[in-house]
Amino acid sequence: MHRTFVKRLFSTYLLGSGIVWSILILPLFPFVGRRGRYWLARLWCRAMVAMLRVICGITCSVEGLEHLPDGPFIMLCRHESTWETLAFMALFPRRISFVFKRELKRVPFFGWVLVGLDMVSLDRGSLRQAHQAVTRECADKLAKGDAVVIFPEGTRVAHDAPLKLASGGVRLACATRVPVVPVVHDAGKVWPAKGWPEGPGHIRVIVTPTLPLDCTIPQELNKLAQAQMDEALAALR
């Protein structure tokens, strides 16, 4: 009974505050510029992290921030939950741009904010055209100094599921010549891929070392990313 109440309370807060905050900040978007829009959205993400702790008893920490490059980079991240898509903007000191499916743009309020944040949308139609379009968009965001976050498994997976990386992220790295930083976490333990937070706990995010820039073969770079992420995931299980 208590767990059900906590889920309903947090979901009500998340959806309600998201709508209210969107209504408040969307009229400001034309006047505050790209940096200002991100700052406004980040305030709500920080509030979400705080309320997740207050309502659900879920805390979080990030290990390995010293591995982040000074300039733009590509983050290959495990995708286990809704949590990382909301919390990363609050937890990482750098501006990040997610690669998200284009259908999300049509979601009222949330999708409108995404459009204003100038992130990278993915059309899952033609794979070749999608890859070309995403490469162009990602290159544009990297040129602006962003960290581009890619979920190389393509969809949310359970925490104990085997890691299976597609090569899109490393091929982008080879095309743009920017560093790749593999990242894992265990959010799926407390906030599963489908559903709402299950109960109190602590989410660990591990930023692993930057992959070597002199590796220009996507298959080899993918093997290195897989090895680092598997090792870090083993520490979370």
Automatic annotation (TrEMBL):
<keyword id="KW-0812">Transmembrane</keyword>
<keyword id="KW-0012">Acyltransferase</keyword>
<keyword id="KW-0808">Transferase</keyword>
<dbReference type="GO" id="GO:0006654">
    <property type="term" value="P:phosphatidic acid biosynthetic process"/>
</dbReference>
<feature type="transmembrane region" description="Helical">
    <location>
        <begin position="12"/>
        <end position="32"/>
    </location>
</feature>
<dbReference type="Pfam" id="PF01553">
    <property type="entry name" value="Acyltransferase"/>
</dbReference>
<dbReference type="InterPro" id="IPR002123">
    <property type="entry name" value="Plipid/glycerol_acylTrfase"/>
</dbReference>
<protein>
    <submittedName>
        <fullName>Phospholipid/glycerol acyltransferase</fullName>
    </submittedName>
</protein>
<comment type="pathway">
    <text>Lipid metabolism.</text>
</comment>
<keyword id="KW-0472">Membrane</keyword>
<feature type="domain" description="Phospholipid/glycerol acyltransferase">
    <location>
        <begin position="73"/>
        <end position="188"/>
    </location>
</feature>
<keyword id="KW-1133">Transmembrane helix</keyword>
<dbReference type="GO" id="GO:0003841">
    <property type="term" value="F:1-acylglycerol-3-phosphate O-acyltransferase activity"/>
</dbReference>
